[in-house]
Amino acid sequence: MDTAADTTAMRRAIALAARGLGSTSPNPVVGCVVLDATGRTAGEGFHQRAGGPHAEVHALRAAGEKARGGTAYVTLEPCNHTGRTGPCAQALIEAGVARVVYAVGDPNPQATGGADTLRAAGVKAEHGLLAEEAEAGNAAWLTSVRLGRPHVTWKYAATLDGRIAAADATSRWITSAESRADVHRLRAEADAVVVGSGTARTDDPQLGVRGVDGAVQPLRVVVDTAATAVRPGARVLDATAPTLIAVAPDADTRHLPDEAVLRLPRAATGPGLDIPALLAALHGRGIRSVLLEGGPTLAGAFVAAGKVDRIVGYLAPVLLGAGPAALADAGISTITQALRLHVTETVCIGPDLRITAVPGPAPKGN
């Protein structure tokens, strides 16, 4: 039976794992806490960057001999393979840990089996403690392994009546400086930021991360089917970060850098490009998390394709009464088809309200 001390240690491991968001891809974020045989904290660690030591190694190094006879709490099942680093299951065995508690089993067939290795060596291995919280913190990597595509967060900013711009198309600024700073945190946690041609044409966004110490700049992606929105000198083509311009096979891209062009098939129905093909191409480039920032049309295409995993909406205490809505046509024509969401968090950001939600099962009839 899990104790209060077990829960406290695992919750700390989950918090440690979050420190790696944005810097470990294509690897998972993982946290580890080691308690000595008396139940006191002996070492902590988290996976800091791809190719670097795993969380367990950092924690075991900090614990030293105090790990012997103790318990290790890990957010993900210790790996069982040798890649750029050695197997963490073996490191735990060699450190003399008596018990390992991990939150989520490793779905990667190349790395799973760590728990079996531990048990075979006489180490008690338990799993499932705070699994839901650990899964949420590692959603991007788990989605990429289970579904073979990046995890997609759709972010938007709107007035309280759901408008993202006024009737004359002005939109700066609907939300507060605090909310805009928070968006840079979201960018810093993502592998790629994606916008559509409308956003590129209207705002000329730069899409880099600002104000976040040590941030790894995400890949910038513009879905510009006809290759008409991004012109030479566009801010998204600067040297801040790599950029891809996704275009149709027949688009004229002579004005764009060759290395920035990504040709994709058109959508089978409606305008635009094939969303699954876009995500597959990004996944093939090591992208495990996407922040979708651009426009109601592109957001509608992602929703219609069933490729939105999380929604983060910033709602400002402002009313406009007219102007474009946050979401355009998403293939929903009747209330019974509505995409029902499960709200996971609501928090005030300056004067605004940030709502985080995930698609949930349709409610049963009243």
Looking at this protein, list some descriptive labels.
single chain, 366 residues, alpha/beta, 5-stranded mixed β-sheet, 10 helices
Characterize this entry briefly.
This protein has ten helices and 14 strands.
Q: What do these coordinates show?
A:
With 366 residues, the protein is of the alpha/beta class. The chain is built from 10 helices and 14 strands. The chain has a 9-stranded mixed β-sheet. The two termini are 38 Å apart. 44% of the residues are buried. The mean pLDDT is 92.
Which SSEs are present, and which pair or pack?
Blueprint: H1 4-18, E1 31-35, E2 41-46, H2 55-63, E3 71-76, H3 88-94, E4 99-104, H4 114-120, E5 124-127, H5 131-137, H6 139-147, E6 151-159, H7 177-189, E7 192-196, H8 197-203, E8 219-223, E9 243-247, E10 261-263, H9 275-284, E11 289-292, H10 296-304, E12 310-316, E13 341-349, E14 352-359
Helix pairs in contact: 3-4
Name the helix and strand elements from N-terminus to C-terminus, one letter apiece. Answer: HEEHEHEHEHHEHEHEEEHEHEEE
Structural class: alpha/beta
* Alpha-carbon distance between the two ends: 38 Å
Query: How large is the count of helical segments?
Result: 10
Strands of the widest sheet, in order across it, are 10-9-8-7-11-6-12-14-13
Number of strands: 14
Which term fits the overall shape?
Answer: elongated
Please mark out the parts with pLDDT under 50 across 5 or more consecutive residues, or reply none. Answer: none
The amount of helix comes to 25-40%
Q: In oligomeric terms, what are we looking at?
A: single chain
Determine the mean pLDDT. Answer: 92
Radius of gyration, rounded? 23 Å
Largest beta-sheet details = 9 strands, mixed
Q: Beta-sheet strand percentage?
A: 15-25%
